[in-house]
Automatic annotation (TrEMBL):
Residues 25-193 form the Helicase ATP-binding domain. The keyword Hydrolase applies. Keywords: ATP-binding, DNA damage, DNA recombination, DNA repair, DNA-binding, Helicase, Hydrolase, Isomerase, Metal-binding, Nucleotide-binding, Zinc. This is DNA helicase RecQ. One of its GO terms (biological process) is DNA repair. It is an enzyme of class 5 (isomerase). The chain holds residues 1 to 513 of 703 of the full protein. Belongs to the helicase family. RecQ subfamily. Its cofactor is Mg(2+); Zn(2+). Transmembrane segments: none annotated. Residues 214-367 form the Helicase C-terminal domain. It catalyses: Couples ATP hydrolysis with the unwinding of duplex DNA by translocating in the 3'-5' direction.
């Protein structure tokens, strides 16, 4: 038996590794940098805990979740693992006791907050110790593209500079392609191995409905699913209260939950939900973090989530047991406006706006929802899923291979440097000054798409994006890039079906790319 497997059994009591865990561990043991992307609950922790236990010296785990550190470390103690943590919630005395244990070489794993890691005293401490590994948990915090950007994370590039021989492993549950790229660049990882476990949750049915007659639909939905447990996510605290009240009046056993309740009240409602005392909960996004309930059978979004990451995270709370579960998102333009108002007041406006537009496109789309979702996370689903509202009621389509090839050929000839607007102008043979100045009228595909209107091209490109044939470089003026699958289309190795545009739903108006 390998040392890793022995440690898995001895410390955690498990017989088998989950997918990728073993490969990640071997890579770290060989001293390689790695980036690990696994959904929540996928088993990321073991990927650094086991190497820490096998190698000589001390592993440093950086995590922004100070509130969870204590639990994590206590959990490890219970398994017989020597771990400690250092953060600002501890007294001087407590910190001194931990430092003493470190100096005595008694511990294998030290959890620290990013602030601690970046302090000068800690740097001097690191210099004196034998560090075998840096694990950066919640690594998406390093990127403005992640959903939880933390400026202090961007300063961690110094680790690789100061300790070039210590492997760094970055872990996260939610990373779109841009975030992945940011993590690698900003941490200065050296030829990192990239481990991405599938984000696909085939047991979840994905459904989007117009945000009309929501209460009536929800009541019908619940009545078709007696005794099932579910979560209804709302945008505002007030909405959670109003909705649970209406449900109770209709005889449904439901409660509400939001961050405005006292800590005791929140703990109680959470407990009631977990024990199925109150099986249905109307909640803001404050609900769900760290809740491990395997038999949630459905998740409804009463309002549009602010981006695809949040949506994925929230629907992911259904069907943890692997059995069939349903998700339903109500989409209305009024929610978009509410989000836009939040965005106006926030930092990172452009990023948030682009992400909001992407989830609108997801809702408007007439392509397999799962395909869109997975392609957002950089995965390609070969077949349509058959378990989403679009697959169950497919729009009529036609062979659009030639149209796609025209667009893809132009994308390649324009060196993947232009956004949708310029691409369409080239395809349609526009004699706009910028096109002429840049010499785009000389490329071979100039004007080959004249027969299709500007608006129709926008919609076709959106479909091609949704199907994962192209992607958008949001960090590069929204230039369109061709994916591997897109290249296969270009070289005639793959066909593309496009949806007749007359069949596109007209309300709300589809957003252009
Ligand atoms: P993540 O950090 O990816 O959200 P965790 O590391 O907290 O996930 O693991 C989620 C759960 O899965 C934990 O209860 C953990 O003990 C369990 N787990 C991890 N690896 C295995 C395994 N190989 N076999 C069985 N359970 C595992
Ligand atoms: Zn589908």
């Amino acid at each position: 038996m390998s040392a890793a497997k022995k440690a898995l059994k001895r410390y955690f009591g498990y017989d088998q590794f989950r997918p990728l865990q073993d490969q990640v561990i071997q890579s770290v043991l060989q001293g390689e940098d790695a980036i690990v992307i696994m959904p929540t609950g996928g088993g990321k922790s073991i990927c650094y805990q086991i190497p820490a236990l096998i190698m000589d010296g001390l592993a440093i785990v950086v995590s922004p979740l100070i509130a969870l550190m204590k639990d994590q470390v206590e959990g490890l103690h219970a398994n017989g693992v020597e771990a400690e943590y250092l953060n600002s919630s501890q007294s001087q005395k407590q910190q001194a006791a931990v430092l003493e244990r470190i100096n005595q070489g008694e511990i294998n794993l030290l959890y620290v907050s990013p602030e601690k890691l970046l302090s000068q005293e800690f740097y001097y401490l690191l210099l004196q110790l034998k560090i075998n590994l840096f694990a950066i948990d919640e690594a998406h915090c390093i990127s403005v593209w992640g959903h939880d950007f933390r400026p202090e994370y961007t300063k961690m590039a110094y680790l690789k500079k100061q300790f070039p021989h210590v492997p760094v492993i970055a872990l996260t549950a939610t990373a779109d392609k841009l975030t992945q790229k940011d993590i690698v660049n900003q941490l200065g990882l050296v030829e990192p191995k990239v481990f991405i476990s599938s984000f696909d949750r085939p047991n979840l049915s994905l459904n989007v409905a117009p945000g009309k007659d929501k209460f009536k639909s929800i009541l019908g939905f619940i009545r078709q699913r007696p005794h099932q447990s579910g979560i209804i996510y709302c945008l505002s605290r007030k909405a959670t209260e109003g909705l649970s009240e209406k449900l109770k009046n209709a005889g449904v056993n439901a409660a509400y939950y939001h961050a405005g309740l006292s800590a005791e009240e929140r703990a109680k409602r959470q407990e009631d939900f977990i024990t199925d005392e109150v099986p249905i909960i109307c909640a803001t996004i404050a609900f769900g973090m760290g809740i491990d309930k395997s038999n949630v059978r459905w998740v409804i979004h009463y309002n549009l989530p602010r981006n695809i990451e949040s949506y994925y995270q929230e629907i992911g709370r259904a069907g943890r047991d692997g059995a069939k579960a349903d998700t339903l998102l109500f989409y209305s333009y009024s929610d978009v406006i509410v989000h836009q108002r939040f965005i106006e007041e926030s930092a990172l406006k452009e990023v948030s706006q682009a992400k909001l537009e992407r989830i609108q496109q997801f809702c408007d789309a007439q392509n397999c929802r799962r395909k869109i979702l997975l392609s957002y996370f950089g995965e390609h689903l070969e077949e349509d899923c058959g378990n989403c509202d679009v697959c169950k009621n497919p729009p009529s389509s036609f062979d659009g291979t030639i149209i796609a090839q025209k667009a893809f050929s132009a994308i390649v000839r324009l060196k993947e440097q232009v956004a949708a607007g310029t691409l369409i102008d080239v395809l349609r043979g526009s004699s706009r000054q910028e096109i002429l100045n840049k010499g785009f009228h000389k490329i071979k595909t100039y004007g080959v798409g004249k027969d299709i209107s500007y608006q129709d091209w926008q919609q076709y490109l959106l479909q091609l994006l949704n199907m994962g044939f192209i992607s958008v470089a949001y960090d590069h003026a929204n230039a369109l890039l061709l994916t591997e699958q897109g290249r296969e289309v270009l070289f005639g190795e793959r066909l593309v079906n496009l949806i007749h545009l007359a069949k596109m739903k007209s309300e709300p108006k589809p957003k252009p790319i």
